[in-house]
Amino acid sequence: MPTSRTTALERLNALLETTAETHDGYLDLLGAAPQAGPPTGLTQRLMRTTLLPQVYERYWRPALGRALKGPLGPSMAGEVRLATKLLRLRPGDTVLDVACGTGRFTRAFGAAVAPDGLAAGLDGARSMLAKAVAEGGPDTVAYVRADAVRLPLKTSTVDGLCCFAALHMFAEPETALDSFARVLKPGGRIVLLTSARRGWQPARLIESAGGIVSGQKMFDRGEIAAALRARGFTEITEKYAGVTQIVAGRLD
After folding, report:
1. 26: closest CA among 10, 37, 15?
2. What is the DSSP letter of 38?
3. Which residues pair with 163 in a beta bridge?
4. Is 1 contained in some domain?
5. pLDDT for 60-116, tens place per residue?
6. Contact 213/192 with Cβ under 8 angstroms?
7. Residue 242 lies in a domain
8. What is the DSSP letter of 60?
9. How far is CA 240 from CA 183, 192, 194, 222, 230, in A?
10. pTM of the entire structure?
């Protein structure tokens, strides 16, 4: 158990494979690099701008999510509640929020694992993390700027892992899934929200073209669930809305 003198940043630093320096309130493993890995398209480049983080939680992410999920999909607040429920977070757990953006999910996870747990938000964009730090939150929350594809955490160190609205923007999503499985403890849980291309051919063609333009990979329905099974996950659930899927599972 952490002591009252141990900060969330210190606890997060202890989980990293390489010790990181604190920069503007978060740990930084990328230094002068503008991002980790090659750019994949317009959407990813927008994440590095200074304007988007200011409107991300209140306007951009809810509006984009609604367009992709359709009228029956969950709101952003609904996504946060669903992710927390599917991860089955308990006080004292360690949870990793991959591609955390401005920290909306991370803060909620921090409340769920309080008072002795750790909610770590990981992102590659300085502007997103600066906004996340400025938003504050529970003292169980800490952030790190690092590669979301090749996670810098030690093996089997987290009880839960969330990656919402990001896997389809990674240049190497299969490598990312390998890394997600590596850092989870046996029995740990994962929840992902990503793209889901429909099977009807006309819609499939349009959705594939949209993915090409925006630089996002369009996964097939069932593809992520199959990828998790191949990595030893069980108790897999799938929920579809529009061109999105929320997939969750438990690592055996």
Report:
1. 10
2. -
3. 98, 192
4. no
5. 567 767 777 888 889 989 999 999 999 999 999 999 999 999 999 999 999 999 999
6. no
7. yes
8. I
9. 26, 12, 10, 10, 21
10. 0.86
